[in-house]
## 1
Amino acid sequence: MANKSVWSDNRFWQRSATWVTGFASVLLIWLTFDTSAQISMGDDADLKNGVTKRVPGPTVINYKITYEMDAKRGHEVPVIGEKEKFFGRDDYSEEEAGALLHLGKLGSQAKNCMDCHTLLGNGAYYAPDLTKSWLDPAWGPEGSMQSMTGKDTKEEAMAEFLQHPSQYPTHARMMPNLGITAAEAKGLVAFLKHMSSIDTNGFPRNFGKIQGAVHGK
Ligand code: HEC
């Protein structure tokens, strides 16, 4: 027995397996709690007090959202700025904003946006990634979509497009009319605006390279 190598000792392997399994379990439990804390949604008080949350509360739709390069992290991060009107108002309460986002989320599921688009990493790449579509400069004051749809604001232009996409083709592929109502379109735009404020660790990767997308143009 004296010459037996540790590598052929059963007890050594049993103990190693116990320690590795124990350590991995503790690590997984810790990571689960850490992730839950990171992705839990903030609220209106956080926004008012300037507390940064990865997933801001629904009332983020009352604010201007821009992106800035974070040199330390090596990618763009969302910056919640000044108050900004959204369909004529910048005073949506937590309940009102929450109800709008809920309507948009249900609409996105009912109309299967993910069949063609990607939302937060889920979905298809037949059509543009929607994770940061709110920040696509095409909808901004210098983009083509406001004049094309005859609307003066980003949110109204987007809502108009969503209700009648086949009237405003811009890509080679056309988005079909999905029978989206005005109320649903408003919810969907709120849903997309909120999504753009989520800190996604720089996803989608090429987002910052879209001309004018960063610095809130
Ligand atoms: C059958 C495929 C399909 C479905 C389903 C679909 N879309 Fe689209 N969508 C497209 C295509 C294709 C384009 C590009 C069309 C264009 O620009 O003319 C587009 C463009 C868009 C744009 C403009 C993107 C940008 O950055 O400029 C938005 C916003 C959008 N879709 C939202 C939605 C939403 C919200 C839903 C679900 C309610 C949805 N789409 C469902 C195919 C689809």
## 2
Amino acid sequence: MTPTALEAFIAETTVRSRRQADPADCVLALAPLMLDLIDQAGTFLEPSHYRSSVQGYTRNLIYDAPDASLSLYSIVWLPGQWTPVHDHGSWGVVGVVEGVLEERSYVRLSPDRGTDEQIDLARGGTVLLRHGAVTSFVPNPDHIHVTGVPDERPRAVSLHLYGRTMNDFNIYDVRSRTRRRIHVAHNES
Ligand SMILES: [Fe+2]
């Protein structure tokens, strides 16, 4: 039986991510796969992957590796929905299926002492990612950013591949210079 586009993507992603110990090499190897996967999104995305909520952006699980080494989500962003300032503790590859996803970066000025306080962040640049665009990031130091869709733009849908099950990550309070760990369920923001 011919594998579906999603099955082929998962199989190849698993092979390549195991082959690359360095996260920077890993995202280099995986970004082209995401670029191709976006073109095939119509063949495997189901109505459940387009779930959204007026409460906030919605993460819909597509694939979670049995050993928790990979996960793939669709995220649906309604106008005006944004993440908090956050990191990932993992490499990640993101592709945009619909709309324009905006990413606003933060630059960490203080050294990472492994504590949750005295964290100085400066606002960095922004990127606007249209349908078909792929972006990626690596940890250590963690990539810290805000992602979302401004009020004036329509819904966006994006695919997010991470190097672990993404059920917890840090969110930052820039003003108080602190961060805290949050735990999220698969189908919730
Ligand atoms: Fe993120």
